[in-house]
Amino acid sequence: MNFLSHYYFDRHNHNPYEVLGMVLPDLIKNADKSWNIYPEKNSSLFKDEDQKSLLKGWKRHLKVDQLFHGSTFFLHHQHQIKLLIRNAIAGSPVKPFFLGHISLELMLDSLLLTEDLINAQHFYGLINEVNEETLKQFIYQNGIGDTDRFFHFFNIFKKEKYLFSYTNPEKITYALERICKRLWKDPFTEEQKNTLTKSLILYKSKLSEEFLHIFELIDSQLN
Description:
- The protein has helices at about 5-10, 15-30, 50-70, 70-85, 95-115, 120-125, 130-140, 145-160, 170-180, 190-205, 210-220.
- The protein has about 220 residues and is an all-alpha fold.
């Protein structure tokens, strides 16, 4: 799941450290895809209560991803999206399976916003409350020495607030392209992007009728 979908499960949580911990695995991967850390295996490192809250959110993120990626909902829809878009991206270096996976997660974020099920402004407000030194210590203790690199990305993430743009279907394609550009220089032609946008708009409309079920299911398994 993507940022806002993870936040859905903490939308009533007012602890900024738990909320940030819930999205921190994705923030770290966005800052540098080569970073792999496992704080859940080193719980004894974290003595400070705020760092423990970051760890609690981190573990919650892992649990949500486990439940989501193991669900029939995920397996069905990522496969259907793959079938829908594979002709649209013929010739692209991007694998339809990969794009089906990422597209589904971005569409879920978009639906949460357009259906007014989460408050993105509240999300940004909470993560802005987190003390930078506490967060720096947390990631440094997990083996990320280049904390400046992380905070360069994190500060842009907070300033640009691009998650709001997911209400616009064209921005979903833009986000997909940004993700793919981390792995491929020129993932899509202009024609492919236009066709992809039209396909995703159609699928998002279909998904809107049933998407909330997966959130309710995961929520029941978390609590």
